[in-house]
Structure to design on (404 residues):
């Protein structure tokens, strides 16, 4: 009798894992196929446009000058292109290093309203009042390709509500973790936006390397305050009928922590924030879809797609369950994941080192599983903005922070 009960519990667990991963499997397959479709590119526009590159920075004195220099080397024509750093609650020389590199600096100090969302909203208000037509956001640990401003100018002049370029790892060769992270970003930040663009959907906002038009910021103010403010704001945009276009011709690359506490904090913050957003937003999106707003099906599926490590873990659980339908589905789901990663390597320009990095994926999955308690705490926490600890970073800043 006890054996029968255990068997039923195991079967139910396998069926539950299949149900939890089904939206994500549909999403992965749709985006992988969409990435193979031709993508419309905006033509270089002659219309003058006032475009600002806004760099939100909190204690980034070691990195901000490199970011400003790469942006100033990316100048579109025609139109105006300004580089502005919002030094938010900084206690180091971020503002001085940014000015020395040639940026205009806005300093903000507010001990109560801390976070990247607050910093961006404050700076957006200033730049819109000064007559800028669009604002691009680039993190302070990032370098941009020389065509970044040209691509953003072309899309904004073409009438885009918003734009998002590809986003990869700057220090991919620093460790096995950063190399594997680069593969993950090829999937998350290149293949998936390209797949959405192929189907004509909103490609998403990734928190770095995106631009918003004046009319978008005026219609949908940037008042997102969660630890994943980019995801939160994008959901607000699509619910208001606006679409983010993919600037596939440009890439930004940001520094990622190679390991240790910085890697743990960053992953717990990103994935925990995503779990919190699922809890907050999925029921409302599901109700809107049920009411007939079918354009929100894809944003709902995207929200329900768990971080890939947990998606794979649940598929493996379904694969070993003594329930044939769940096992068949799990095998198909794992094949979709493999196809998705292979397509990401092709679209993202991956090489043999990236392929080799996938061999360490099982250890990465186990590492992320061990972080689940921290992720659940991050899902409940308020957004206080501190920089992620990286190589050579000050170890004193260890508060829970918003995604940088």
């Amino acid at each position: 009798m006890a054996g029968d009960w255990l068997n039923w519990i195991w079967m139910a667990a396998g069926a539950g894992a299949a149900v939890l991963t089904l939206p994500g499997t549909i999403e992965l397959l749709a985006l992988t196929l969409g990435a193979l479709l031709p993508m419309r590119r905006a033509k270089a526009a002659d219309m003058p446009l006032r475009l600002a590159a806004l760099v939100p920075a909190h204690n980034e004195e070691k990195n901000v000058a490199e970011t400003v220099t790469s942006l100033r080397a990316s100048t579109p024509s025609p139109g105006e292109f300004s580089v502005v750093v919002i030094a938010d609650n900084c206690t180091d020389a971020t503002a001085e290093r940014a000015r020395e590199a040639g940026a205009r600096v806005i300093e903000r100090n507010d001990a109560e309203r801390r976070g990247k969302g607050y910093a961006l909203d404050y700076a957006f208000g200033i730049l819109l009042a000064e007559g800028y037509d669009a604002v691009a956001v680039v993190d302070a640990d990032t370098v941009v390709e020389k065509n970044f401003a040209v691509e953003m100018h072309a899309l904004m002049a073409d009438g885009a509500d918003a734009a998002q370029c590809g986003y990869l790892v700057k220090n991919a060769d620093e460790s096995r973790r950063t190399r594997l992270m680069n593969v993950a970003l090829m999937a998350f930040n290149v293949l998936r936006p390209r797949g959405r663009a192929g189907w004509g959907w909103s490609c998403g906002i990734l928190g770095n390397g995106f631009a918003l038009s004046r009319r978008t910021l005026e219609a949908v103010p940037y008042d997102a305050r969660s630890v994943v403010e980019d995801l939160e704001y994008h959901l607000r945009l699509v619910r208001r009928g606006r679409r983010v276009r993919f600037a596939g011709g440009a890439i930004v690359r940001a520094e990622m922590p190679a390991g240790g506490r910085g890697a743990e904090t960053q992953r717990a913050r990103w994935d925990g924030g995503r779990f919190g957003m699922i809890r907050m937003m999925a029921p409302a999106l599901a109700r809107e879809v049920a009411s007939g707003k079918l354009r929100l099906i894809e944003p709902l599926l995207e929200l329900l797609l768990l971080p890939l490590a947990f998606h794979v873990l649940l598929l493996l659980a379904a694969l070993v369950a003594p329930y044939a339908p769940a096992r068949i589905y799990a095998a198909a789901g794992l094949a979709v994941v493999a196809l998705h990663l292979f397509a990401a390597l092709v679209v993202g320009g991956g090489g043999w080192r990236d392929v080799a990095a996938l061999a360490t994926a099982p250890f990465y999955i186990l590492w992320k599983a061990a972080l689940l308690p921290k992720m659940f705490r991050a899902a409940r926490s308020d957004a206080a903005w501190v920089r992620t600890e990286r190589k050579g970073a000050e170890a004193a800043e260890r508060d829970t922070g918003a995604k940088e």
